[in-house]
Inverse folding.
């Protein structure tokens, strides 16, 4: 039997509001931000919508304010972006890559303050905040090389004196609607690749991380203006649901890339499809790790700890379900609880902290509801289970449960550090349980058996878009295509052939024979 540890065993840290204010002031100044900021950029800064305050989730203090876009601002921004796309598409792709390279260098020069702003505004620990900016830098490096490799192909023609080929051209304007949990990287994935493909980009970040959106756009805008290019190539229209809904419905936006919940993504997809636009969806994840009885337990425990607790459980790739073989179940749980007991919770800017706050009070309420649902549906709390209301910010205890694989709460994505553990006897049932949820983003199997590894990544294995072996479900590299199946949306971002979603494919046949032979041998004379 496992006993929930007392609250005093949880190592928590808070920090003074005066220190937080000093850190905020220095960070904003380094990024060219003020207490009040305009949140619309389309070659010039503006904004006539509502003012949104950005709140530090660790202290509850206001960091700064952003004047968002109204529908008129968005309309002007889309007009400017459409005009900018016509100029940008005529720039040779390798020269577009050079501009992205300069943006990469400008981001690198600001990596420390920008990473700190992510920690302040989103709430993730500082190493993760800096790592997120590094992810944008990495994808920019990737995009620079890609700008010389946007290759089509030559297709053999059945007709003499004919050349058939496949070419790729820009789609035009790409709308990027990103979420709070990765306020830099998700835009970076889309923007860097889309730009070398020849598109302009209109960005609507999450309202709760609007300062980060403004800071990133300021960095990019300076590069564009220095090179005498239209700033509207990287436009920003800060706002809430009204702005996002308008982007989804507007025909001037040729591709809408949406990252967020499955419910909202479904609405975006329907709106875009109704006008026959293109959509790229990165939606919910309910990711699982399977630990078989032949696994390296040390490796698996460390991996589960990072996968379940990193970013306070607020990654789309966070591990939310853990399937443990019966032979190692009790030992694994005991060791995992000991690891959880060492987690320091508190100020995300402080060294040694592994778990920062949840992003909003609403997230805390969702966590508490999830814990209550576990208890109501026959589950047990093995560790944690409490919101830390004695702390100023939105802090909760990373939580481990024991519950049935088919309990409704297990099939629901809760964006918080709740890990459901389930015992299994045969690996085939664990794979089936991995696949039984609606989402299909990331999954991982821990085993030393080559047979099980290859079955896992084969047609009878995981049905997710990301299928790992002996590594966590999170922490994806930029070189592979990122995305998932089923209710995760089917979109792919970042590496591999994901760039093709930002372009239109054209099949071209050139007749240089002077004759008119028809395909399939048809005679029409």
């Amino acid at each position: 039997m496992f006993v929930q540890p007392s609250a005093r065993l949880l190592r928590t840290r808070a920090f003074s509001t005066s220190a937080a204010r000093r850190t905020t002031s220095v960070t904003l100044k380094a990024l060219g931000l003020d207490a009040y900021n305009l949140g619309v950029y389309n070659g010039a800064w503006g904004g006539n919508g509502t003012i949104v305050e950005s709140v530090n989730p660790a202290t509850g203090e206001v960091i700064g304010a952003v004047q968002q876009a109204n529908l008129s601002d968005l309309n002007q921004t889309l007009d400017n972006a459409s005009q900018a796309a016509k100029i940008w598409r005529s720039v040779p792709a390798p020269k577009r890559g050079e501009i992205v390279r300069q943006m990469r260098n400008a981001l690198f020069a600001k990596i420390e303050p920008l990473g700190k702003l992510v920690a302040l505004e989103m709430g993730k620990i500082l190493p993760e905040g800096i790592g997120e900016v590094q992810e944008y830098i990495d994808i920019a490096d990737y995009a620079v090389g890609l700008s010389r490799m946007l290759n089509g192909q030559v297709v053999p023609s059945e007709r003499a004196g004919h050349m058939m080929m496949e070419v790729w051209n820009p789609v035009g304007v790409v709308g990027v609607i990103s979420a709070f949990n990765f306020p830099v990287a998700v835009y970076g994935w889309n923007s860097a690749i889309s730009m070398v493909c020849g598109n302009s980009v209109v960005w609507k970040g999450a309202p709760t991380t609007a300062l980060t959106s403004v800071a990133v756009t300021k960095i990019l805008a300076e590069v564009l203006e220095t090179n005498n290019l239209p700033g509207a190539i990287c436009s920003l229209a800060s706002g809430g649901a009204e702005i996002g809904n308008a982007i989804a419905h507007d025909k001037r936006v040729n591709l809408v890339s949406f990252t967020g919940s499955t419910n909202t993504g479904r609405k975006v997809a329907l709106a875009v499809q109704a006008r026959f636009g293109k959509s790229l969806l990165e939606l919910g994840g309910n990711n699982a790790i399977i630990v078989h009885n032949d696994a390296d337990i040390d490796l698996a425990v460390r991996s589960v700890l990072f996968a379940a607790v990193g970013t306070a459980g607020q990654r789309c790739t966070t591990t939310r379900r853990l399937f443990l073989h019966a032979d190692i179940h009790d030992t694994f749980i005991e060791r995992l609880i000991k690891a959880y007991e060492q987690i320091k919770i508190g100020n995300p800017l402080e060294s040694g902290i592994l778990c920062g706050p949840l992003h909003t009070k609403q997230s805390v309420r969702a966590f508490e509801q999830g814990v209550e649902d576990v208890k109501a549906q026959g589950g047990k709390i093995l560790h944690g289970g409490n919101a830390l209301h004695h702390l100023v910010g939105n802090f909760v205890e990373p939580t481990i449960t024991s519950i049935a694989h088919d309990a409704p709460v297990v099939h629901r994505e809760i964006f918080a550090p709740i890990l459901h553990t389930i015992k299994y006897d045969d690996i085939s049932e664990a794979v089936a349980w991995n696949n039984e949820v609606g989402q299909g983003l990331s999954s991982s199997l821990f085993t030393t058996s080559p047979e099980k590894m290859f079955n896992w990544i084969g047609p009878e294995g995981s049905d997710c878009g990301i299928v790992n072996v002996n590594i966590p479900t999170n922490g994806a590299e930029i070189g592979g295509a990122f995305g998932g199946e089923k209710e995760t949306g089917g979109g792919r971002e970042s590496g591999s052939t994901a760039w093709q979603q930002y372009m239109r494919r054209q099949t071209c046949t050139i007749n240089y024979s002077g004759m008119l032979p028809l395909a399939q041998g048809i005679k029409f004379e």
